[in-house]
Design goal:
Layout: E1 7-12, H1 18-21, E2 27-30, E3 33-40, H2 42-50, E4 56-60, H3 61-67, E5 71-81, E6 88-92, E7 103-107, H4 112-124, E8 130-134, H5 138-144, E9 147-151, H6 152-159, E10 166-169, H7 170-178, E11 182-190, H8 191-196, H9 198-217, H10 219-229, H11 234-243, E12 244-245, H12 250-265
Parallel strand pairs: 1-3, 1-4, 7-8, 7-9
Antiparallel strand pairs: 2-3, 4-11, 5-11, 5-12, 6-9, 6-10
Helix pairs in contact: 4-7, 10-11
């Protein structure tokens, strides 16, 4: 057997996912097989994996909820936080305790964060604004809305500027409200790829775990890279990378399960979602 081509792996093109991917070549080898990295924003990776144009990818947690029957999660790999996330931010013209927004502009780059915001607005603040989806340019977003949601590197850059706006961190809001962590992205493999090449998929998982361990053991390298590529200060990036969680432990799994429950309650997801990992694949036949 064999693919006859590189296995295609989707990489989130934001600093928050660097610990999972930084240092990997765009083309390389994984065991005896070759791989190809495709770097995109989360919303684009979601579509590529669901369409079968990627085999394994870091995707929005919400997208896993949509297609969970088609995927299995690679264990020990995620992007989450227990408290502030620093890069999923709602910018408001007025504090929410003064004026609840009537219209919110949403980034087109996200799925998890967009629906996390809808959950928090509806169930925590009893607020049902109109939502519009736009390109992630803060000034343009706020030209059409009372508040704007940004994620990833655009959110980080916007947080450094003095806009005269009120800023809310969705990771902090979620944790203060539920007491749980939140997982924004997971690493999923298509079940048809697992059926066809289970050893190769496991090898990809092992490669990413090793990359994560190496990067988290050398966070200073990530900090230097972030300062050079995005800007900002060493203290900022030190706090940033230390705030994020990458192991997908029980706190994060519990938080994500609650997120899926609320998303189903609000009709954002059409079915219940079970968190299922690659090790649980024994129930499915592997083609020989």
């Amino acid at each position: 057997m064999g693919l006859g081509r590189p296995i295609r792996i989707g990489e989130i093109d934001y600093a928050n996912a660097w610990p999972l991917f930084h240092g990997l070549a765009q083309q390389g080898t994984c065991g005896n097989d070759s791989y190809e990295l495709v770097a995109q924003v989360p919303s684009r990776l979601n579509g590529l994996l669901s369409e079968g144009k990627l085999d394994v990818a870091a995707i929005s947690s919400f997208s896993y909820g949509q297609f969970s029957e088609q995927y299995r999660l690679l264990p020990g790999l995620s992007v989450g936080s227990v408290g502030k996330v620093h890069s999923i931010l709602l910018f408001l013209k007025e504090p929410i305790h003064v004026t609840k927004p009537k219209k919110i502009a949403l980034t087109s780059a996200s799925a998890t964060s967009v629906n996390l915001l809808k959950i928090i607005m509806a169930l925590r603040f009893q607020c049902t604004p109109d939502y519009i989806t736009t390109e992630p340019v803060l000034d343009e977003m706020l030209h059409h809305a009372d508040a704007a949601l940004l994620i990833g590197d655009p959110a980080i850059r916007a947080s450094w500027l003095s806009h005269g706006l009120h800023m809310m961190d969705l990771g902090e809001l979620w944790h203060d409200w539920t007491g749980l962590g939140m997982t924004y992205a997971v690493v999923a493999a298509r079940r048809d790829m697992i059926d066809r090449e289970p050893k190769l998929v496991r090898a990809v998982g092992s490669m990413l775990l090793e990359t994560k361990r190496d990067n988290l053991s050398h966070v200073d390298d990530l900090i230097v890279h972030a300062c050079a590529r995005i800007g900002g200060s060493r203290p900022y990036w030190t706090t940033y990378f230390r705030s994020l969680q990458y192991d997908f432990d029980s706190r994060l799994q519990d938080g994500l399960s609650l997120y899926f429950k609320y998303a189903r309650q609000l009709g954002l997801l059409q079915q219940e979602t079970k968190i299922a990992f690659l090790e649980e694949q024994s129930a499915y036949k592997v083609n020989e």
